[in-house]
Design a protein that fits this description.
Number of strands: 8
CATH topology: Rossmann fold
CATH class: Alpha Beta
Radius of gyration: 20 Å
Mean pLDDT: 92
Number of domains: 1
Strand order of the largest sheet: 1-2-4-3-5-6-7-8
Structural class: alpha/beta
Oligomer: single chain
Helix content: 25-40%
Largest sheet: 8 strands, mixed
Order of helices and strands: EEEHEHEHEHHEHHEHH
Length: 339
């Protein structure tokens, strides 16, 4: 696929408004592709998990390219055809889901449900869309971006024995406050002489202030997702070990990070105006080390990465849906072939 080529919507997509049995007063807006299985193939459900900003619509080109790569198009009458069931959705208060989380009622504005609440809602959603589809147990595979990666990890921890794999796209650094990445010039033991030549104390002061205002876990977001306990839920990049996936096996895990230079340029041009030297000396190395930890969440033979997504910033599924589709299809094949 040529870079920037227009991508048609995935054929056969179904748009649904689903009320969870546990939260019947609100709807979740979903995009779903029914699966087509050939005899003897495992039932796989691919679930796409959003970050805080990019909504489910960003996954539609990935779905379409996956169908193209699987040579399925919109056909469902080929007895040798196979495609997994696919699901993307917007959480409460996000994207096309205008309804707020009913559990937020009575809580402090902006600090409603947390990531564990999202995990439990997701489990209910998956149960409702799959309970009539097939008696064969589903192997869940997550394709996630940003905080969606933390949700995927927590889901595998909370519901052992059902997740077969996950593709983690520029995961949120779940154990970070996004301020301590940078040295604190006001600290008594701060040494200005230790700074790189192209970094000044003033740049650090400004960057720490901007990051605290925009990214600190206490900062509120439009969907009311409370991130303040995320570091306590996932204190380590490489733990808990994802060894109890579907059928008691270790999960397949593919870790993908942004292109450091591309990300640095985007950060300079974006609203944060982060100097390139700050991104290259602090943000990118810290993020890469975190990604290296994520690649140790599973056994060596089931891990892949960290892979650098060329010419991609934080939203890899938007910048290069083709590489995401490729990695997702490769993982599907690995799941199918797993003895």
């Amino acid at each position: 696929m040529a870079y920037g080529e227009a991508i048609a919507l995935p054929p056969g997509i179904i748009y649904e408004s689903i009320r969870l049995n546990t939260k019947p007063t609100a709807c979740l807006e979903c995009s779903r592709l029914p699966g087509v299985s050939k005899s003897g193939y495992p039932n796989i459900l691919v679930v796409f998990l959003n970050g805080l900003i990019a909504s489910q619509s960003a996954w539609l080109p990935v779905m379409a390219l996956m169908l193209r790569r699987l040579k399925m198009g919109g056909a469902s009458d080929d007895k040798d055809a196979y495609r997994p069931e696919m699901l993307a959705y917007d959480r409460y208060g996000q994207g096309r889901t205008q309804d707020r989380d009913p559990s937020d009622e009575g809580k402090e504005e902006g600090y409603g449900h947390d990531t564990l609440d999202v995990v439990h809602d997701l489990h209910q959603l998956i149960n409702q869309i799959t309970h009539d589809s097939n008696t064969q147990p589903k192997r869940i595979m997550f394709v996630a971006n940003s905080i969606g990666c933390a949700i995927a990890r927590l889901y595998a921890e909370q519901y052992p024995g059902v997740v077969a794999g996950m593709v983690l796209l520029d995961s949120i650094m779940a154990n970070s406050d996004f301020v301590s990445i940078f040295p604190d010039p006001s600290s008594p033991d701060f040494d200005p002489g230790s700074l790189p030549q192209d970094v000044t104390p003033g740049m650090l002061y400004e960057t720490r202030h901007k990051f605290r205002e925009a990214f600190h876990p206490s900062v509120k977001n439009s969907e009311g997702l409370d991130r303040r306990n995320l570091a306590a839920l996932l204190p380590d990049a490489d733990k808990p070990f994802l060894g109890n996936g579907f059928d008691g096996k270790a999960l397949f895990v593919s870790v993908v990070g942004h292109d450091p230079e591309w990300f640095a340029e985007e950060s300079l041009q974006g609203s944060m105006r982060t100097p390139i030297s700050i991104s290259m000396n602090y943000t990118n190395p810290t993020w890469h080390r975190y990604n290296q930890g994520l690649a140790r969440l599973t056994s060596l033979e089931k891990a892949c990465g960290p892979i650098i997504a060329n010419k991609c910033g934080h939203f890899i599924q938007i910048d290069d849906p083709a590489v995401v589709a490729q990695l997702a299809c490769e993982m599907i094949e690995r799941i199918i072939q797993d003895p």
